[in-house]
Design a protein that fits this description.
This protein has about 270 residues and is mainly β. It has two domains: about 90 residues, Immunoglobulin-like; about 140 residues, Galactose-binding domain-like (Jelly Rolls, Sandwich), CATH 2.60.120.260. It contains two helices and 21 strands. The strands form five sheets. Strands 11, 13, 14, 16, 19 and 21 form a six-stranded antiparallel β-sheet that branches. Strands 3, 4, 6, 7 and 8 form a five-stranded antiparallel β-sheet that branches. The longest helix is centred in the first third of the chain and has 21 residues.
Length: about 270
Amino acid sequence: MKKINFLILILVIVSCQKEEIDAIPGYIKIDTINLDETNVTSNITDAWVYVNDQLQGVYELPTKFPVLEDSIQTLRIKAGIKSNGIASNRIAYPFYSSYFEDITFNPDLIININPSVNYLDDIQFFIEDFDENGLKIDTDSLTFTRNNINGINDNYGKITLQDSMYLSEITTFELKELPQAGSPVYLELDYKSNTQFLVGVYVNYPQTVIQKDLLWINPKQDWNKIYVNLTSTISEGIDATSFKVFIGMIRDFELERNELYFDNLKVVY
C-alpha cells in the first residue's frame, strides 16, 4: 500500500511539472523608462519589474521578457541605473518614483509598456545648472568658464587645462544638511571630457578637513550622465560640520589641451 501511494505522489509531481513546462507565457515589452520632469536629464538603463510586489526580474533596456501570469495583475516598475557608472553595480534608483499599472495577462500576448517616473516628493537637491546669474560653486577663474554653445539645455560649465596649467578644481558651496546613518546621497552630473577627472568630497570637521577621493571618471566624447554614490562617505563623516563635493582634473600633457564640460550638477538626498 505504501509503494502504491508513493507511485501516485511521483505521478502527481511529474504531472504538475509538465503543466508548468507546457504553460504559455505572456510577454512585456519596455523600450525606455521616461523621467517626467521638465528640462531634467536621466540615464535610466534598467527596469526592475514586480508583479503583485514580487520581483519578476531586472532587465536591461530595451527588453522583452515572459511572464507566467494570467488575468489581472498589478505591475510595478522601478527605474534602474548604473551606480558610479559601473555595469556590474546596477540599482533601483532610490530617488525615482515607481510606475504602477494593472495589466491583464494573456498567453502569448505581447504587452507594450511605456513607463514614466518622477522624483519623489520628499527629496532635496543642491543644484548648479549654470542658468542663473550667480554660481553655487567655487571655481578657478583661470581654468573655468561658463558657455552656452552645444550644451544640453542652455549654459554649462567648462574646465580647460592647456600650456603649463597643471590642475583645476571646482567645489560646491558647503552642504550642511546631508543625511547620514546610511540614508542615500548621490551626485548626478552631465559631462563630456577628453580626459579623466576625479569626483570626491571634502569632509569639514571643526579642526580639520579630510579629502575623500571617490571616483575617477573616464572620458566621453558625447554628453553622458553619471550617478555617483556619496552615501558611505557622508555617513562616515560623523561630527562633520559640513561637506563639499569637488570635481578635479589634472593635466594630461599628451593632449594639446584638456577639456571637461559639465552641467546639471546635482546633489540629491
